[in-house]
Amino acid sequence: MVDFYENHNANVHRGVHTLSLEATELYEQGRERVANFVNAKESSEIIFVRGTTEAINLVAYSWGLNNLKKNDEILVSLMEHHSNIVPWEITAKIRGFKINYANVTSDGILDVKDFENKINSKTKLVCLSHVSNVTGMVNEIKKLSKIVHDHGAIMLVDGAQSVPHMKVDVQDLNADFLVFSGHKMLGPTGIGVLYGKKELLQNMSPFQGGGEMIKDVVFDPANQRCNISWNMPPWKFEAGTPNICGVVGLTAAIKYLEQVGMDNILAHEQALTKYALNGMKNLGKIMLYGPMNSNKCGIITFGLAELSSHDIALLCDSYGVAIRSGYHCAQPLHQIFQLQSSARASFYLYNTIEEINRFIEVLKEIQTL
Questions:
Q1: What's the mean per-residue pLDDT of the chain?
Q2: Which of 11, 36, 78, 313 is least enclosed by beta carbons within 10 angstroms?
Q3: 152: which strand partners?
Q4: Distance from C-alpha of 231 to C-alpha of 245, rounded to nearest angstrom
C-alpha cells in the first residue's frame, strides 16, 4: 500500500497517463486475484465495496427492491449478524415482502428441519451465514444451497467469518451471492467484496449513481432530460472513485493467505480452539456458550459468573489480552441463549499455544477477584 501511494497513485479507468494505467492494472489484477481466491467463473463477478455490510445492502437495494414484492418471502436465520437482518427489515417495509426466520437451537446450531419447513414456493431469497460470528459454528452451505435451489430460490451467503479462515469455493457451494470483508483476512479496513453470479448482476439495477458506473449520459433538449445507459458489471456497481489502495492491500493479504494455505489456517485455528476449550472447561466459574464440537472456526463465546461481559473484557485488557464483549451485532442469537451479552475470544493464524496459556492464566486470575 505504501508502494502504491508512493509510486502508482492515480485514479483508475479514467486517464491514459502512466500512473493511471498502472493504478488500473493493480486494481483489476486485484479483482482477478479475488476471483481466483473464491473460484468465481469470471472476474466480472467480483464487485469491490467497503465491506460485508455494504455488500449486503447492495443486494438488498439493487436486487431486493426490484425483485421482491408483496406476497413474496425471504428466509433469514436467527444466528445472523445484524448486517444480514437490518437491510432486509428496511426493504421489507418498502416492498411489503415477508421475512421468515429459521430457528437456532439453544446451543447455537441452525435448526435444519425448521429451515426446510420455512422454505416454500413463495420464497425468493435465503440469507445465511457460512460461519456464525458468535459461536464459530460452520453451516453446511452446500447442502442447504441445494435445498434452496430445489425450491427455485437464490442464496446469499455471509462469508465474513468463513472466507478468511477456510477454503471457500463459490461454484462448489453454488452460492448466488457471497459477501466478505478485507479487514477480517489481514487486509485493510474499508474494503470488501460482493461476489454475484454473472446473470444476476447483469439484470440488477445500480446501487449508487455517479462516475464510472455509466456508459453514456446524453442530454435530450426536447425533453430536458438526460438519457442514461449503464456500464457493464462489475463497474456498474462501483460508482465514483473506489478504494484503490484498499484493493492493493487486499490483494497482498490474499497472496499471503494463499502462501500459508487455507487448509493450514483452518487446522491451526481448530487446534487452538480445542486446546483453549479444554483449558477453559477446567475453570470453575466459566460458562461456555454455543456448540462444543469440531465443526467450528476459532471462536469461543463465554461468560464468567457474577461479571458482565464488559467487565470480563476490561479485566482481560488490563492483563494485555484483547477479547470482544457485548452482543457481537447478533442480538437475536443472544435472546436464544437468554443472555444480556457475552465475551468472545477469537483466534487466527498468528495466534499461538503460548498465548492461549496466557489467556487461561488471566481467566484463572480474574475468577479469583
A1: 96
A2: 36
A3: none
A4: 23
Residue 14 pLDDT? 86
Domain range annotation of the chain? 2-208+241-260, 262-367
Cβ-in-10-Å burial (0-12, 13-18, 19+) of 41 comes to exposed
Say which residues have a Cβ less than 8 Å from residue 165's Cβ, sequence separation at least 6: 131, 262, 265, 266, 269, 297, 298, 348
Closest CA to 20 of 28, 7, 10, 30: 10
**In terms of C-beta distances under 8 Å and separation of at least 24 residues, what long-range contacts does 14-17 make, across chains too?**
14/212
Q: How buried is residue 13: exposed, middle or buried, by Cβ count under 10 Å (0-12/13-18/19+)?
A: middle
Q: Grid coordinates representing 141?
A: 452451505
What parts of the chain have a pLDDT lower than 70?
A: 294
Residue type, 262: M
The identity of residue 160, as a single letter, is A
Q: Hey, what's the cell of 220?
A: 435530450
Residue 357 burial (CB count, 10 A): 13
User: pLDDT digits over 280-327, tens only?
Assistant: 999 989 999 998 876 788 999 999 988 999 999 999 999 999 999 999
What does the DSSP 8-state code read for residue 187? S
Nine-digit cell string for 285: 466459574
Q: Three cell numbers at 243?
A: 478504494
The CA angle 139-335-266, to the nearest 5 degrees, is 30
Task: Identify the sign of the CA torsion 217, 219, 225, 227.
Answer: negative
Residue with cell string 432486509: 88
CATH topology of domain 262-367: Aspartate Aminotransferase, domain 1 (3.90.1150)
Active site residues: 329
pTM, two decimal places: 0.96
Distance CA 20, CA 37 (A): 26
CB 74 within 8 A of CB 88: yes
- Tally the residues of the chain: 369
In 3D space, the residue among 316, 320, 294 whose CA is nearest the CA of residue 303 turns out to be 316
**Top-level class of domain 2-208+241-260:** alpha beta
With residue 22 as reference, give the H or E element that holds it.
helix 18-38
